[in-house]
Amino acid sequence: MISIKSEHEINMMREASKILIETREALRDMIKPGISTRALDVRAEEVIRSYGAVPSFKDYEGYPASICASINHVVIHGIPNDQEKLKEGDIISIDLGVFYKGYHADSAATFAVGEISNEKAQLMKVTEEALFKGIEMAMPGNHVSDISHAIESYIKPYGYGIVETFTGHGIGRQLHEEPQVLNYGPKGQGPILRPGMTICIEPMVNLGSKNVKVLSDGWTVVTTDKKPSAHAEHMILITQDGHEIMTKKKE
Ligand code: CO
After folding, report:
1. Which of 94, 109, 126, 233 lies at a CB distance of 3.0 to 4.6 Å from 202, suitable for a disulfide?
2. Residue 80 has pLDDT above 90, yes or no
3. What pLDDT shows up at residue 148?
4. Ligand 1 center to residue 38 CA distance, Å?
5. CA 141 to ligand 1 center in whole angstroms
6. What pLDDT is recorded for position 96?
7. How many A from CA of 202 to the centre of ligand 1?
């Protein structure tokens, strides 16, 4: 069952999203060579709690931090730590979740540390563009997999590996709800989108092969060929006539 959110619930999720956006902007300003992923995590938790909210990821199935900080060949779920410091030329994906008054917001973005290679820059750009191609298909009457297909079709010509073992998801009272939102596949499959549904769309795109593995810490997902990976995620509300990108900064 896919939950349909009431106007009140949508407003709570908008509040959670605002806190998430503030947190993302605070972290963006800190992304420079020399900073540890732990420092980003500490700051994120501070900002989130300053609004009376809670980091969604902390203790989620035992996850030990407030954010995921995934550098270069780490695809997702990189655990912040004191040893790992950002270096010029790195790309880092930061995944953030905020739980406020009973509802979650979830979003991720990949950032450049100083000057990065053209190949990393293009990977980041295409990943974000693919997210927006998916978002364009997020409207009432479309099937969930119309999003999936749009993402895959956009990425394919670049020859990148689309990660298949992790997916987007519904969201609301729970961080992960139905439906699953794949980043590949044929269109016209899966549930039909309806106003009031809230979903997270999150392509994870590898410069090389799509193959990934989980490290022995049980969380860190890396590319098996050690090539870099990018991740972009927004939380979307399906509206009467299209969608609202809840976790996007309002211009
Ligand atoms: Co997510």
Report:
1. 233
2. yes
3. 98
4. 21
5. 23
6. 98
7. 7
With beta carbons less than 8 A apart as the criterion, state whether 198 and 93 touch.
no
For helices 7-28 and 37-50, the axis angle rounded to 10 degrees is 140
Average pLDDT estimate for 157-168: 98
State the chain's mean pLDDT as an integer. Answer: 98
Residue 135: HSE in the Cβ half-sphere, 13 Å Cα cutoff: 21
Give distance in angstroms: CA of 115 to centre of ligand 1.
Answer: 28
* Residue 170 token pair: 């519904």
> Measured in angstroms, how far is the CA atom of residue 201 from the centroid of ligand 1?
7
| pLDDT at residue 250 tops 90 | no
Q: How far, in Å, is the centroid of ligand 1 from the Cα of 120?
A: 22
How far, in Å, are 76, 137, 221 from residue 216 at the CA level? 14, 37, 10
Q: State the helix-helix crossing angle for 118-136 and 144-155, rounded to 10 degrees.
A: 150
